[in-house]
């Protein structure tokens, strides 16, 4: 889940609110150098210092009512900064919610960060919304809101709706235009099929900063979105993944949080370039038939002085009661889900990424912490809800509304929950009293699978129940099987070194485990580096160990994962019924001593089923007998011990011996050879 906590008391706001930042002109305008939307501006552009802020509003009374009730789902069209014409004069409209403020002014390089010079006006309706139009204000200007709030407390805040921010450590917002000419029309027309629950799901989880760097030893070196596009897109295409999941790309001040401590919810991080750069990256993925999922964090936010915390001198976005409003695990603050304005802010934010960036799904972080009042709290540190339970009722309502709204407006996408408890109905529709997610991470499967494969193969006979237990509760949810970033950090060791045995056995075990993963029902998610056997824990300050490709074992493991992805796409039995009870059948669990198990994956089309046999020990088993019903299996379509994957290649099945033993029951006896520590797939 999260990276390092924010350091207490650390202030990453630039001096003078950003006045020391050197930009492309004395006014602080960076627009012309970085991006042009095609909008035309007159040479007579000016800022009228005699009447610096004009009374103007983009908000209707209905907008305000919906905002307050938590039912305005496109706030980004009205709040924040917007370039427009008023009375034939170009300028910038600003709109911000600061209900306990007594004054709000726009400050920046354009006025040398002077307070109260460009003051916004409060709306007449006591909504706490401040707004105004500054003529002559250009795109590319850095700015903040100078807020005098409760008891005269002064805060200098970035814009919660800003689409672009300065690159950290500077913290000002930047006025920006979100225009982009998308080229993914064909993808958008057909993505309903690609993102359906009966389509193959194989997700490559990526941290954009550390996947690859210009200098692996320099944590301050970053590839641009363009460079990432040139390198990452063809790699994911070559590997055959159906989707890529990007760890949080929203603006965040601290690299060590891995993006999970967000200050700019409506902005792509400036570490790699401007927002259009991320759009182009997503466009390129879509051109190659790859869906894009964004990690999204509505569970908490950091205390950085330019962010959402104590926005107007009071607890504006977070709960005031720290029994609900503070995350002890992550040293951060919890959104007040009861407040309509906060609910509108968050749901609008999710919609924003689908609308403006054409994403195909969100993986919602730390759902358990949203749902439970007692999450990481001891007795006496939390207060039960009105019914005496531990559920956060307003948070539950928020999540249901979130999912209903996303699927209403974007029925061809998916929402995926990272939820680690037995909370019922995470991926059930809200009309069936569920929370409405499309999928849920299967954390129990992940833990049990890793525990099983860590065991010395000779001891696995005593732990088969740990291996097979997942199917006892699999049908409770629509599960995604995750081997995520959390499993290869903080002393947990890289995936390869979780496996027992010598070097050959480690690779064989890992290929075997991936074969099991790819043939188990459900979506798949693999963290970057796991596909080629990274030999060090993930380090966000560096990059993946690409130098390992010089070794056959690592390069050929990558080929094995790529072929599993190809097999997943090719064989409908591996995905068509992945979320219902018709897609899986145990064939043989009765050979515990030999640690050999077999099962079928069942297609909607008769005769297209596949049979999977896993040999969990390094013992070769020739003429192994398996009894199956249905149709005979005559072809070996995958063998994880193949030489092309750095296996022995000595045990294979060019001819499957299949004998009909009961014509009425359509039962067959199959004799095959089982390679050591390997999985074999028959069709």
Question: Would you kindly provide a written description of the structure presented here, covering whatever features stand out?
Answer:
This protein is of the alpha/beta class. Helix content is 23%, strand content 20%. The chain contains 15 helices and 28 strands. The strands form 7 sheets. Strands 9-10-13-16-17-18-19-20 form an 8-stranded parallel barrel, surrounded by 4 helices. Strands 21-22-23-28-25 form a 5-stranded antiparallel sheet. It is elongated, with a radius of gyration of 27 Å.
In short, what is this structure?
This protein is 23% helix and 20% strand. The radius of gyration is 27 Å and the shape is elongated.
List the helices and strands and how they pair.
Blueprint: H1 31-34, H2 61-69, E1 80-86, E2 89-97, E3 103-108, E4 121-122, E5 129-135, E6 142-148, E7 154-157, E8 173-174, H3 185-194, E9 202-206, H4 208-211, H5 225-239, E10 243-246, E11 250-251, E12 264-268, H6 275-287, E13 291-296, H7 322-325, E14 326-327, E15 332-333, H8 340-357, E16 361-364, H9 367-371, H10 393-409, E17 414-417, E18 439-441, H11 443-454, H12 464-468, H13 470-473, E19 479-483, H14 503-519, E20 523-527, H15 552-570, E21 584-588, E22 596-601, E23 610-615, E24 621-629, E25 636-639, E26 657-662, E27 667-674, E28 678-682
Parallel strand pairs: 9-10, 9-20, 10-13, 13-16, 16-17, 17-18, 18-19, 19-20
Antiparallel strand pairs: 1-2, 2-5, 3-6, 4-5, 6-7, 6-8, 11-12, 14-15, 21-22, 22-23, 23-28, 24-27, 25-28, 26-27
């Amino acid at each position: 889940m999260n990276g390092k906590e924010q350091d207490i008391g650390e202030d990453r706001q630039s001096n003078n609110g950003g006045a020391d930042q050197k930009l492309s002109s004395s006014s602080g305008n960076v627009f012309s150098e970085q991006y042009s939307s095609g909008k035309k501006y007159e040479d007579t552009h000016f800022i009228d210092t005699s009447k610096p802020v004009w009374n103007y509003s983009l908000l209707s009374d209905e907008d305000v009512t919906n905002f307050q009730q938590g039912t305005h789902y496109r706030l980004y069209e009205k709040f924040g900064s917007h370039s427009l014409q008023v009375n034939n004069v170009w300028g910038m409209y600003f709109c911000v919610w600061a209900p306990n403020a007594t004054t709000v002014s726009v400050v920046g390089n354009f006025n040398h960060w002077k307070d109260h010079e460009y003051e916004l006006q409060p709306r007449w309706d006591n909504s706490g919304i401040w707004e105004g139009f500054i003529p002559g204000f250009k795109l590319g200007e850095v700015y903040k809101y100078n807020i005098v709030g409760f008891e005269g407390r002064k805060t200098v805040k970035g814009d919660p709706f800003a689409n672009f921010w300065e690159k950290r450590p500077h913290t000002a917002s930047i006025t920006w235009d979100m225009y982009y000419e998308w080229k993914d029309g064909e993808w958008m027309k057909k993505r309903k099929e690609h993102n359906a629950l009966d389509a193959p799901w194989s997700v490559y989880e990526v941290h954009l900063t550390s996947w690859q760097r210009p200098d692996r030893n320099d944590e301050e070196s970053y590839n641009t979105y363009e460079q990432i596009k040139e390198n990452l897109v063809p790699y994911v295409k070559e590997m055959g993944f159906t989707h890529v999941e990007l760890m949080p790309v929203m603006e965040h001040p601290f690299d060590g949080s891995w993006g999970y401590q967000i200050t700019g919810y409506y902005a792509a991080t400036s570490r790699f370039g401007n927002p259009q750069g991320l759009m182009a990256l997503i466009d390129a993925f879509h051109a190659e038939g790859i869906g894009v999922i964004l990690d999204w964090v509505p569970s908490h936010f950091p205390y950085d002085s330019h962010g959402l915390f104590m926005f107007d001198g009071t607890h504006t976005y977070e709960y005031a009661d720290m029994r609900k409003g503070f995350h002890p695990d992550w040293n951060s603050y919890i959104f007040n889900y009861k407040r309509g304005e906060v609910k509108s802010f968050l749901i609008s934010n999710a919609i924003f990424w689908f609308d403006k960036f054409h994403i195909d799904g969100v993986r919602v972080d730390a759902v358990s912490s949203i749902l439970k009042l007692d999450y990481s709290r001891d007795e006496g540190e939390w207060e039960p809800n009105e019914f005496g339970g531990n559920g956060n009722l307003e948070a539950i309502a928020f999540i249901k509304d979130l999912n209903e709204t996303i699927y209403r407006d974007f029925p061809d996408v998916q929402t995926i929950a990272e939820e680690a408890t037995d909370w019922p109905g995470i991926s059930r529709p809200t009309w069936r009293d569920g929370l409405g997610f499309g999928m849920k991470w299967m954390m129990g499967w992940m833990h049990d699978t890793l525990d099983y494969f860590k065991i010395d193969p000779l001891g696995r006979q005593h732990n088969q129940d740990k291996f097979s237990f997942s199917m006892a509760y699999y049908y409770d949810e629509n599960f995604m099987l995750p081997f995520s970033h959390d499993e290869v950090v903080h002393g947990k060791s890289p995936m390869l070194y979780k496996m027992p045995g010598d070097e050959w056995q480690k690779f064989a075990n890992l290929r075997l485990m991936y074969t099991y993963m790819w043939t188990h029902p459900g979506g798949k998610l693999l963290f970057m580096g796991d596909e080629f056997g990274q030999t060090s824990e993930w380090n966000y300050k560096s990059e993946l160990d690409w130098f390992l490709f010089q070794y056959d074992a690592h390069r050929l493991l990558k080929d094995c994962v790529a072929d599993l992805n190809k097999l997943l796409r090719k064989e409908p039995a591996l995905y068509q019924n992945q979320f219902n009870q018709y897609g899986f059948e145990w064939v043989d669990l009765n050979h515990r001593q030999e640690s050999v198990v077999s099962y079928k994956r069942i297609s909607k089309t008769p005769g297209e089923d596949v049979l999977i046999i896993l040999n969990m020990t390094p013992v070769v088993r020739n003429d192994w007998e398996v009894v199956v019903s249905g149709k005979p299996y005559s072809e070996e379509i995958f063998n994880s011990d193949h030489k092309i994957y750095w296996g022995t290649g000595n045990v294979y099945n060019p001819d499957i011996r299949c004998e009909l033993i009961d014509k009425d029951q359509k039962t067959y006896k199959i004799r095959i050879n089982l390679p050591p520590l390997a999985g074999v797939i028959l069709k």
